[in-house]
Design goal:
The protein is α+β, with helices and mostly antiparallel strands. The chain has one domain. A three-stranded antiparallel beta sheet has the order 2-3-4. The radius of gyration is 21 Å and the shape is globular. The protein starts with a strand and ends in a 5-residue tail after the last helix. The relative contact order is 0.20.
Length: 223
């Protein structure tokens, strides 16, 4: 991994947080020629607004609700054939965790199907209770199930509970700005983004103080 060559070194005031870097563009290979939602994914009507909890929604800023009932889409082998469906590709990548190909059957030889369910996430009002979150953005939870939505027998590896939501680049213009921090941003995989690292360090110093002091944490390791 090589540095980007763009290292922002303007000094920050003590306790201040570096500004959020500008959004990187969506990778050009995210959409392929001939892409079209398949017959199973098209009826889902997934729009950018679907992933945002708006003030007019009944669950806006309420405690996160239980994940909805699973909706079974189609068997894994069929989804793998839908190479022109961007959502099928995304679901399979998220379920594989970037490690192995999604299996067709579980460890008992039972056929696997891909299912989705909905949930929400957002800010944590109490830092001492990180599990208590308010609803600001919606999450799509893909999973592998058996016929009837039963749980399969699968090895514990990769990403156990994958989540899919909206890219920050696609935030609707009328969406609450407080939703933005909970949306993923495109990142570079071929270089170090010094602006992003600088922001992370400033957040750590501003919110954790001396707990994360480099001299204190690195000394036991002779760094």
């Amino acid at each position: 991994m090589a540095p980007t060559g763009k290292d922002v070194t303007h000094p920050l005031k003590p306790g201040s947080i570096a500004p959020q870097p500008s959004l990187l563009p969506v990778p050009s290979n995210a959409v392929l020629p001939g892409d079209k939602l398949c017959a199973a994914c098209s009826p889902l009507n997934l729009t950018a607004r679907r992933f945002i909890v708006f003030p007019t929604d009944s669950d806006f800023m309420r405690w996160t609700q239980p994940i909805t009932k699973k909706l079974v889409l189609q068997p894994v082998p069929q989804m793998r054939k839908n190479t022109n469906c961007p959502l099928c590709r995304l679901l399979l990548v998220s379920l594989s965790g970037g490690i192995d190909e999604v299996p067709d059957v579980d460890r008992r030889g039972r056929k696997l199907q891909v299912a989705i369910s909905w949930g929400t996430t957002g800010r944590t009002p109490n830092r001492d209770q990180p599990w208590g979150r308010l609803s600001e953005v919606r999450l799509l939870h893909p999973s592998l199930v058996l016929d009837g939505g039963k749980y399969p027998d699968l090895p514990l590896k990769g990403i156990l509970f994958p989540e899919i939501t909206l890219l920050a680049n696609d935030l609707p213009p009328d969406a609450p700005p407080t939703a933005l921090p909970f949306l993923p941003r495109p990142t570079r995989h071929d270089a170090i983004d010094f602006e992003l690292v600088r922001r992370w360090l400033s957040i750590c110093e501003a919110r954790h103080g001396t707990v994360c002091n480099l001299a204190h944490t690195m000394q036991p390791m002779d760094w």
